[in-house]
Amino acid sequence: MKKPDIVILGAGYGGVMTAVKLQKILNSNEATITLVNKFDYHYQTTWLHENAAGTLHHDRTRIPIKDVVNMDKVQFVLDTVVSIKPEKKKVKLKNGEVPYDILVIGLGFEAETFGIAGLEEHAFTIDNINNARLIREHLEYNFAMYHHEDEKNPGRLNIVIGGGGFTGVEFLGELANRIPELCEEYDIHKSMVRIINIEGQSTVLPGFDPQLAEYAMNSLESRGVEFMTGAMVKECQADRVIYEKDGKEVEIPTYTTIWTAGVRANSIVEESGFEHNRGKIEVRSDMRAPDQDDVFAVGDCALIMNEQTGKPYPPTAQIAIQEAETVANNVKTLVQGNGELESFEPNLLGTVASLGRGDAIGDIFNNWKLFGWKAVIMKKIIDNRYLLKLGGVGLLMRKGKFNIFY
Ligand code: FAD
């Protein structure tokens, strides 16, 4: 009998952890496992804001797939998924096609711009290594250009971040550290540079504990960040951003708008005709698509309702990693054709947001609030724990974060 083809799309947290677990629990003679990704490395999305600000080199964030996946057990295909054809059980790639018997969709997220004029064309997004690297270079270029032009142009030194959610706040923290370094390097006085956050709600980190959100704002303000809360971005152009607050439109000259205010699942899910809820596959408790017994979704492509709150669980790396465990176990059960599929039970350990060098906030283990260095240590434990789980002590030693002062 032909071995079933298991195809995993995307090597983010959900996809790569599914592959790593499957290579351990399935024998090579039981199934063929194929992992498709558009880069030959896995990157830690949760570190991209540091790469974008230039406080951490992107080579610390990316991990060659061959370093964590056993290429004797998993076939790796370096290609871009174009669409999925569930009725034909095929995945169309830029350079070919892959058939599957069991599919795992882990294609992650993309920026949601809500149709705001000019954002797609002119704003930057922090969603992969290439874009993070582009932001870092763009910041430096504008600092360099400031002294190069005869007429001083404040737009070169105004940096606007749209959105004060988790990603926006973490990025602001890194910028607050990076900008003084850039000022020194390019002979620019710190007072010339503005870091402006535009957030629609009345506070940053909406949904987070208010005391922690206030701490975050105070910490960032003390390092020069300006907050425009209750303000909506209306339009972005190459050299300005326009926002509305209290019924008035305000224009900020800037060449650097970074949009962090919205994410959605990879649009391939919706375009491939899967039944979806706001672009995500609302999976059954065993992580399978509602009408497809051979298709699993993991990470930001999957939507799971929290029965207690009636709201979906937020898209996080933490949940993606936990889901991968269930997906791998259930794929194995399908391949072996015996036993019941297990239900996914999230184990929410809490959230820790970095605020840049030496500062962070956290809400962990059911309402234990952390501030400052304690939260910094917790953040590093979380990051290092993932590396250990993914690639063992060797990977932890190569990529881990051990300096608590940075
Ligand atoms: P991803 O990790 O995004 O991986 C998707 C993979 O699919 C990528 O490898 C990509 O290359 C690949 N891919 C995409 N499209 C294609 C295609 N067409 N063809 C082939 N391959 C493709 N969560 C937390 O829990 N804690 C945090 O502290 C935290 N911080 C964050 C900070 C930032 C700056 C950001 C942006 C997010 C943060 N998140 C955090 C959220 C978290 O990163 C996501 O929820 C998580 O990455 C989702 O994992 P995933 O496996 O679904 O997708």
Automatic annotation (TrEMBL):
The keyword Flavoprotein applies. Gene3D superfamilies: 3.50.50.100. One of its GO terms (biological process) is aerobic electron transport chain. Residues 5-324 form the FAD/NAD(P)-binding domain. It comes from the Bacteria. Belongs to the NADH dehydrogenase family. This is NAD(P)/FAD-dependent oxidoreductase. It comes from Lentibacillus salicampi.
